[in-house]
Amino acid sequence: MSAELANTLSTRKQAILELADQLAPERLRWIKRNSYFYHDDWHFMSFLIPEGARVLELGCGIGTLLHFLKPSYGVGVDFSPAMVTEARQRFPHLRFIEGDIENTAILEAIEGPFDYIILSDMIGLLDDCEETLSSLHRLCDRNTRLIIAYYSHLWEPVLKGGARLGLCMPHREHNFLLPADIANLMELADFGVVRFEWRQLLPLRLLGLGSLVNRFVGTLPGIRLACLRNYVVGRSLRHARIDVRSATVVIPCRNERGNIEPAIQRMPQFCPDLEVIFVEGHSRDGTYEEVERVIRAYPDRDIKLIRQDGVGKGDAVFKAFDLARGEVLMILDADLTVPPEQLPKFWNALTSGKGEFINGTRLVYPMEGKAMRFLNLLANITFSWLFTWLLNQRFTDTLCGTKVLLRSDYQRIKANRSYFGNFDPFGDYDLLFGASKLSLRTIEMPIRYANRSYGQTQISRFRHGWLLLRMVVFAYSKLKILKNFRKDRMPL
């Protein structure tokens, strides 16, 4: 430790730095000794962070996590000269900087923005967490995600006992921060919290028992709060507002002839450049011909018509999304049970930066008497509870057809679709899963659900209900236990 650096540090941080320098030559040995813990931690980080991203890790140690993430551009910062020396020797393809991140000059010398900024256990070492987090905005843009990983202090006695017995690496006194405290600090620093996650109820392999417990017990509501590892993901609110002028409203329609013209008549001109795309799905009531008539009747509106090749609402929506020219993409069901007059609220919620994925909810305001059958209502409530648990964001209605997002975010969801596969004929869950995988800020927009004025529902309560339940099980395997996720070996 240089005398110049030591003079800028508090007494507490000097002690932390001295220990870090002493442990640097043994850091890899400690990682190997507790390989199960690090293996799970790094794999969850790689679930949050796709390969090829621009990644900044603050408190990078010897650089093993940063290397594991396979960034296109990776920068690590650590105030331990010994740790940085080890990192540079092991991973010369990455950039490592020696310095204290609470020294603003260190961060000002780094060129951003980054896709992801990681503080893995670093939050516990800072003297002023809020000020440090505030200094990160210059390294962010709208898509940047700040990921703070920390340990639960419920485990403090176990970790101290393990250190005394030589079972885990010793550490100095850390800040006592619960996930709610970290979220509060992020909010104070103008970072909006996007998601929480809890992992590793049993951070040991134990001949496979640890994996079973962590996958099937440690993910359960309530129990997961006792896990060792906590994650909080946020986004910069200073970069949240979106400057866009165009939108595309996609209206999938099958046997909806009587709702076509009302959809256009009732839709406000809520943005300077509005495109409407009807996707016709092999109707038997003349819907296709009705759309053609409406296009001729309203030459002042930018209305387009395409015919669906495949089957299912999801296929129709995604075909239109690929052809859309609007910067904002919106889905409006042709039954008009979600009133077109409500679309400006969705536009305002997205462009103001309040949310990045706006999901309509029909279950807040009272709905008209026949708008939703009882069994459908019960199923919607059940699936909403399950998805609140699965995605760690509150949902009151997952099956509302009206969803709004940026076209650029949809393209990112589409690029990552291989992780979940093409399994959702409705498209609702495909978008919800994709938005969650990208850690997009999802908010719900309450709407007053109306009765149909024409036609009949296309949903089969029992057949489609069984399919949706299978999707929940599938989502559990992909979002909670990370089944079939990356099998890379740890860089040891």
Overview of this protein structure:
There is one protein chain. The protein is α/β, with parallel strands linked by helices. It folds into 2 domains: 3-239, Rossmann fold (3-Layer(aba) Sandwich); 246-479, Spore Coat Polysaccharide Biosynthesis Protein SpsA, Chain A. It is 38% helix and 17% strand. The chain has helices at residues 3-8, 11-23, 27-33, 35-48, 64-68, 81-90, 104-108, 129-134, 156-164, 179-188, 209-216, 260-266, 287-297, 313-323, 343-351, 374-391, 407-415, 428-437, 461-479; strands at residues 54-58, 73-78, 95-98, 116-120, 145-151, 191-199, 229-236, 246-253, 273-280, 302-307, 328-331, 357-361, 403-406, 442-446. A 7-stranded mixed sheet has the order 3-2-1-4-5-7-6, with helices on both faces. The protein has a 7-stranded mixed sheet with strand order 10-9-8-11-13-12-14, sandwiched between helices. The radius of gyration is 25 Å and the shape is elongated. The mean pLDDT is 88.
The chain-level mean pLDDT equals 88
Q: How many beta-strand segments?
A: 14
The profile of the biggest β sheet is: 7 strands, mixed
Instruction: Specify the structural class.
Output: alpha/beta
The CATH architecture of the largest domain can be given as: 3-Layer(aba) Sandwich
Low-confidence stretches: none
Order of neighbouring strands in the sheet with most strands: 3-2-1-4-5-7-6
Question: How far apart are the first and last residues' alpha carbons, in Å?
Answer: 26 Å
Total individual domains: 2
* Strand-residue proportion: 15-25%
**What's the Cα radius of gyration?**
25 Å
Label the overall shape. Answer: elongated
- What name does CATH use for the topology of the largest domain? Rossmann fold
Helicity, as a percent range:
25-40%
Superfamily (CATH H level) name of the largest domain: Vaccinia Virus protein VP39
Tell me, what is the CATH class of the largest domain? Alpha Beta
